Amino acid sequence: MDLIFAEASPPGRGGVSVIRLSGAGARAMLERFAGRVPEPRKAVLRLIRDGDEQLDQALVIWFEAGSSFTGEEVAELQLHGAPVVVRRVSAALQAAGCRQAEAGEFTRRAYVNGRMDLAAVEGLGDLLEAETEAQRKLALQNASGGLSRKVETWRQMLIRAGALIEVSVDFADEDVPDDVPNEVFHILHQLRSEFSGEIDGFHAAERLRKGFEVAVIGPPNAGKSSLINRIAQREVALVSDISGTTRDIIELRIDLKGLAVTLLDTAGLRESNDQIEAMGVDRARNRALTADLRLHLSSTGQVDDSLWSDGDIAVTTKADLAAQNTGMAISSVTGAGINQLLDELYERLSLRVSGAGLVSRQRQLSAIRDARDTLQQVDDLPPEILAELIRQTAVSLDRLLGRIGAEEYLDVIFSSFCIGK
Ligand SMILES: Nc1nc2c(ncn2[C@@H]2O[C@H](COP(=O)(O)OP(=O)(O)OP(=O)(O)O)[C@@H](O)[C@H]2O)c(=O)[nH]1
Ligand SMILES: [K+]
Ligand SMILES: [Mg+2]
Question: Which of 393, 359, 397 shows the shortest CA–CA distance to 374?
Fold first, then answer.
């Protein structure tokens, strides 16, 4: 593959800017600009020159083909972190025949060269986008091969089951039914239950990865927007004493003790002759129904039963105006009760991620579901059929890791990466 380069650090001013090169010819390019090629994986300080002109002084690292991120020859230049330096060095590399990499192209090469499977690539993509602790942990597990190792264990179990069947078949006498060893059924049952476990943990893992949606709902003037602003500590939404101030849904993304949560400010729920307000109320209802949890706000403690679900929280607002308060009461003016509300919300959401597995994408889920369905009914089946089911299960696992059937996902996955990764 041709020689590509890109700035691997974020564009802009900083301590260091990293330019990475990958592909056949990276070694020659390094020699040309930095002189003698250092020992692999040893950072050395070199002058970067373009002919007679000195471009920068940089730490240079050399990785041999087969032991780099992409699997190809890779060179890294840690330049002084000024955009003008990066521009100058990039121009020199381009003039020397290197091509500017596309988004995700380094990772794509790592995948194509078998350095990473698709599950690890997806984990890496999630890691680069992670905003909270819970997202970082899940993503890092997958980026560092957590799901891949699990699948490898499953594959070994399938191989063993297949081998046990093979030795049990008596090819000499085709009329006598062969006994399939019990261990085969034992392995297949265990696999099925492990697949089911991952499927059961999908919803939680997906929530960890994408975050939760929590709708703040209630009648007009309940104080919904005021709560959102108080949590955001800035004026995210308009607040006024006019009923029907909020129309569109306003999203506020927060890090709730490590959980990614999007709070939705919504239009006050009421019948309205104002066409625009009515559209807002429709949106509010629809989003409230699809949200993971609802905070039902009102100054009287009333809730809208048609939107109530288990796990929702009823919140009495404007506690500063009431003589006494019961239940979950908050004031967006004084801040009273808001930390308790967020603690309660965290408790409820964290319960829902407790069983999270490693499978956190629809693509992965569909593959593992197929694997589980293939092994749904294995008891009393003859060896030839069992052998075929084992083969099909292995195919589903290959799909899970992107060893086959990945083509349609590749462009989507890699285009979401940044340039330089
Ligand atoms: N005293 C007091 N007033 C509050 C409190 N929260 C909100 N308000 C007032 O109540 C009025 C309505 O507040 P909003 O936050 O706009 O209410 P909302 O539920 O978003 O209203 P809509 O968007 O119209 O549905 C405003 O005048 C706020 O200043 C509170 O905790 N205490
Ligand atoms: K209002
Ligand atoms: Mg509002």
Answer: 393
Do 311 and 366 share a structural domain?
no
Q: Which domain holds residue 403?
A: 118-201+359-415
Of 326, 352, 378, the residue at which a domain comes to its end is 352
Tell whether residue 26 is among the known ligand binding residues.
no
R_g over Cα of the chain: 29
419/196 Cα distance (integer angstroms): 37
**Is the distance from the beta carbon of residue 266 to the nearest atom of ligand 1 less than 6 Å?**
no
Find the helix or strand (DSSP H, E) in which 136 lies.
Answer: helix 133-143
Does the beta carbon of 52 sit less than 6 angstroms from any atom of ligand 1? Answer: no
Q: How far is the CA of 236 from the centre of ligand 1 (A)?
A: 14
One-letter amino acid of 229: N
CATH number of residue 29's parent domain: 3.30.1360.120
pLDDT digits (tens, 9 = 90+) for 160-210: 999 999 888 766 556 555 688 999 999 999 999 999 999 999 999 999 999
227, 239, 249: residue to mutate for ligand 1 pocket, most atoms within 8 A of CB: 239
Check whether residue 213 and residue 341 sit in a common domain: yes
The first and second tokens of residue 14, run together, are 């900083």
Locate 195 and state its tokens: 């697949």
Domain shared by 11 and 47, yes or no: yes
Asked whether 345 and 311 are in contact (CB, 8 A), the reply is: no
Assess whether 27 and 79 both reside in one domain. yes
pTM, two decimals, is 0.85
Tally of domains within the chain: 3
What does the pLDDT look like over 260-306, one tens digit per residue?
A: 999 999 999 999 999 999 999 999 999 999 999 999 999 998 899 99
What CATH number did the domain enclosing 299 receive?
A: 3.40.50.300
Pair (196, 217) in one structural domain = no
Ligand 1, atom 27, residue with closest C-alpha: 241
Residue 229 is labelled as binding a ligand? no
Read off the pLDDT of each residue in 123-128 and give the average, rounded to a whole number: 94
- Decide if 282 is inside a domain: yes
Q: What is the CATH number of the domain that holds 135?
A: 1.20.120.430
Is the predicted ipTM greater than 0.95, yes or no?
A: yes
Return the exposure string of 400-413: e unless at least 16 CB atoms fall within 10 Å of the residue's CB, then b.
bbbeeebeeebeeb
Nearest ligand (C-alpha, residue 226): 1
